[in-house]
Automatic annotation (TrEMBL):
PANTHER family: FIVE-SPAN TRANSMEMBRANE PROTEIN M83 (PTHR14319), POST-GPI ATTACHMENT TO PROTEINS FACTOR 6 (PTHR14319:SF7). It is a multi-pass membrane protein. The keyword Disulfide bond applies. PROSITE patterns: EGF_1, EGF_2, EGF_3. The lineage of its organism: Eukaryota, Metazoa, Chordata, Craniata, Vertebrata. The gene is Tmem8a. This is TMM8A factor. The keyword Nucleotide-binding does not apply. Disulfide bonds join 462-472, 487-496. Residues 279-309 are annotated as: Disordered. Belongs to the TMEM8 family. GO terms for cellular component: plasma membrane.
Length: 735
């Protein structure tokens, strides 16, 4: 046999601590057909700085769709199907780099996904620039060994093959046509070269993670052995591997024969299908009164179709796939939303999800039983949602499984007429919905009965749009798009339905009130600035108080939210006002000449506005203006001290009762802002920051100029007399 090796690689990604699915780094590979061996090369590394510690990286694998993971142990939405992902852990301890290999024999061809992440995030809010996070990098490479000339087993034709040695397995493949109900594989005339009993092991199917449904049979001492597969995957190549269990140098000769039993499908008239399609495009929707009368069938044709139902093993219902948006699809039944379900053969609906871009959302199937349509009160409609092939024996078995897939069961009855199923990240394939009527006393009781079931099926990026406490985010890895929910207000879970740590409405209102009303502490600073004739500074403080109040009213994660304008505009104005307030306060303390002070006011504000536009959350946007203003203030104070030959400011009362308390409050505020804020305590630690900063401004503002007189409100108007001041005017004559 000719083997071909191929290598696929993707660029490394920087890992993040896990708080929601967007923190997991996704890798998407495509395994080619006829692959007999798949090897993953996983490389993890970390930085060399002192901030880098021992770390455990979790890597998840899945075939057909991104892995469904739950590192935080939160709840999934009701009616959601969750199957644990296959995962491994990679530990970075003393070594800077770790290399791990993962082997998969006879992997399924198609899309494979790898997701990697760090442990749960600590929740601490880090100011950009105060600390340097350790970089943890992860890269996944894929090696495949592919058989270039894999023999093809034709149905009904015996194919002789020889297994040279136990070290070299025999690989063949067979194509499973559409509407296959049962497949038989038979091994004949198994003979060993050492004239001993033939011992071989046959493996049907490919490995899919996290669950694999390979079928294995062992033939020992038998000349012939066989295996039957119910509902094998339609329109796919099925790989078969035969291994010798004999001696090391013994060869085995065997004949292989594959045969199929087809399922005869029945469906409604093609004229009805085309008529419904035309009606849905130009007139009323299917199932409405206008649409029901447009396609007509004669009475003879109707009775003839009813009599033919007994000869069909399934009834096809035409379904139209309607693409709405990215990872958003609606399935529409041409003959109306209700489908007839009987006990003679299952009713089948095809849900096409094989475009390669549909596995990043959630498939939702909702069934609603029309109670008046069921003549038997104790009858039940059993349904099964499966991939690759449908379940064709609902009346015999209720395990909802095909040859290589465990389906998802549903059940509706007159006592429970509604059922819902949510498949998170459905794998890329053709999905089928099978429905059949079941009676507890036997199928003979249900032969003449029929039920009407309304089917709603759609693909959505996020189920229920993540609810009121979540945001549905569209994520991208190269050209592949998938969706995830980012929760807020303490809510968690895949669809933000976990209330374990959720904030109550009263707690949300309290958080909003604290973050907004704490800005009112700027009122004393504004009053002091106006009293001392610092009108420009008072205007800046008023601007900061206004936008900080309404920014935090708009920034709340829960229901207590009020946005007077665009969120991004409010955030920019809040950040700008905060930095400019610090800038003008320190420059005011420097007591430089007025013309120079106002020039620095305007120039500094323009530079701060530019830097905030470049990087709004950078620490140097605040520290840069502060340090530069402090340099100007210290230089001005040194100049005044040298000129007066005395310490400046000269009054010890100014130092003890104003400067030292103001500086202390400012340092405490910076410490709280930089080192104490977390996601859980943000609403009161940030409120403390507001109070401390505003209070420090009121202490740090210098006294008014000596030549400025105080606001003399008592001299304005008293008893209709106004005290006037005579000013000397110089008159000039122009000749």
């Amino acid at each position: 046999s000719l083997y071909v090796s191929e290598y696929f690689s993707q660029s490394a990604q920087k890992l993040s601590f896990y708080s929601w699915y967007g923190n997991a780094k996704l890798f998407h590979f495509r395994v080619p057909e006829d692959t007999v061996l798949l090897r993953w090369l996983l490389q993890a590394s970390r930085g060399k700085g002192p901030e880098c510690t021992n770390m455990e990286i979790t890597v998840h694998f899945r075939y057909g769709a991104p892995p469904v993971i739950n590192p935080l142990g939160t709840d999934f939405p009701a009616n959601a199907t969750v199957r644990p992902s296959y995962s491994i852990s990679i530990t970075l301890s003393s070594a800077v780099q770790n290399t791990t290999f993962v082997n998969v024999t006879t992997p399924a061809a198609g899309d494979w996904f790898i997701a990697a992440h760090l442990p749960e995030a600590a929740g601490r809010i880090e100011v950009k620039g105060f600390s340097t996070p350790c970089p943890y990098m992860f890269q996944a490479d894929m090696f495949v060994l592919r058989l270039a000339d894999m023999p093809v087993l034709e149905p009904g034709v015996a194919m002789p093959q020889t297994i040279v040695s136990p070290a070299k397995a025999l690989h063949v493949k067979v194509f499973v046509p559409k509407h296959t109900a049962v497949m038989w594989l038979e091994l004949r005339n198994c003979v060993s070269s050492e004239q001993k009993a033939c011992a071989v092991r046959v493996v049907l199917g490919s490995i899919t993670l996290p669950q694999s449904f390979q079928r294995i049979i062992t033939c020992v001492g038998k000349v012939n052995c066989s295996l039957a597969l119910d509902s094998p995957p339609w329109e796919k190549w099925l790989q078969i591997m035969v291994e010798s269990l004999g001696a090391a140098n013994a060869s085995v000769s065997v004949e292989m024969l594959a045969s199929f039993r087809a399922c005869r499908p029945g469906s409604t008239s093609s004229f009805l299908n085309f008529g419904s399609l035309n009606q849905s495009q130009t007139g009323p929707r299917p199932g409405s009164a206008g649409a029901a009368g447009s396609p007509t069938l004669s009475t003879g044709e109707t009775s003839h179709n009813a009599s033919d139902q007994r000869s069909f093993c399934l009834q096809n219902q035409p379904v139209v796939r309607e693409d709405l948006d990215v990872v958003s699809v609606r399935y529409r039944l041409l003959n109306g939303p209700s489908v007839p379900v009987n006990s003679l053969s299952p009713t089948l609906l095809l849900l096409n999800l094989n475009t390669g871009m549909d596995s990043g959302g959630s498939l939702v199937v909702n069934l609603l039983l029309n109670k008046t349509s069921v003549s038997l009160a104790n009858a039940t409609v059993v349904a099964c949602v499966s991939a690759a092939s449908p379940v064709l024996s609902l009346n015999a078995t209720h395990n909802c499984s095909t040859a290589f897939f465990q389906g998802y069961p549903l059940r509706v009855s007159t006592s429970s007429p509604e059922a819902m199923l949510i498949v998170l990240y459905p794998q890329t394939d053709d999905w089928f919905l099978s429905l059949q009527l079941i009676c507890p006393k036997g199928q003979g009781e249900c032969n003449a009965a029929e039920a009407k079931v309304t089917v709603f099926a759609y693909l959505t990026p996020c189920f229920n749009d993540c609810g009121p406490y979540g945001q549905c985010s569209l994520l991208r890895r190269h050209g592949y798009l998938y969706a995830g929910c980012s929760c807020k207000a303490g809510w968690g879970g895949w669809s933000c339905t976990d209330v374990t740590k959720a904030q109550s409405v009263s707690a949300q209102n309290l958080a909003t009130l604290l973050l907004t009303l704490s800005n009112l502490m700027f009122l004393p600073a504004i009053a002091v600035a106006v009293y001392r004739y610092y009108l420009v500074e008072a205007s800046v403080y008023t601007y900061t108080m206004f936008f900080s109040t309404f920014y935090h009213a708009c920034d709340q994660p829960g229901v207590a939210v009020m946005c007077i304008m665009n969120y991004d505009t409010l955030q920019y104005c809040d950040f700008l006002g905060s930095v400019v307030s610090i800038w003008v306060t320190i420059l005011c303390m420097s007591r430089v000449k007025k013309i120079l002070k106002y020039v620095l006011f305007v120039l500094g504000t323009l530079l701060i506005a530019m830097s905030l536009q470049l990087d709004r959350r950078g620490v140097w946007n605040m520290m840069g203006p502060c340090l530069f203003a402090l340099v100007i203030m210290i230089a001005a104070w040194v100049y005044h001290g040298v000129k007066r030959r005395h310490c400046y400011p000269p009054s010890w009362k100014r130092w003890v009762f104003y400067l030292l308390p103001g500086i202390t409050l400012a340092f405490i505020a910076i410490s709280v802002y930089a080192f104490m804020e977390t996601n859980e305590n943000y609403y009161y630690t940030h409120s403390i920051w507001h109070v401390l900063v505003a209070s420090s401004v009121a202490f740090l503002l210098p006294p008014r100029d000596k030549h400025k007189k105080p606001w003399a409100w008592s001299q304005k108007l008293t008893c209709r007399y106004q005290i006037c001041q005579n000013d000397r005017e110089e008159l000039y004559a122009v000749t």
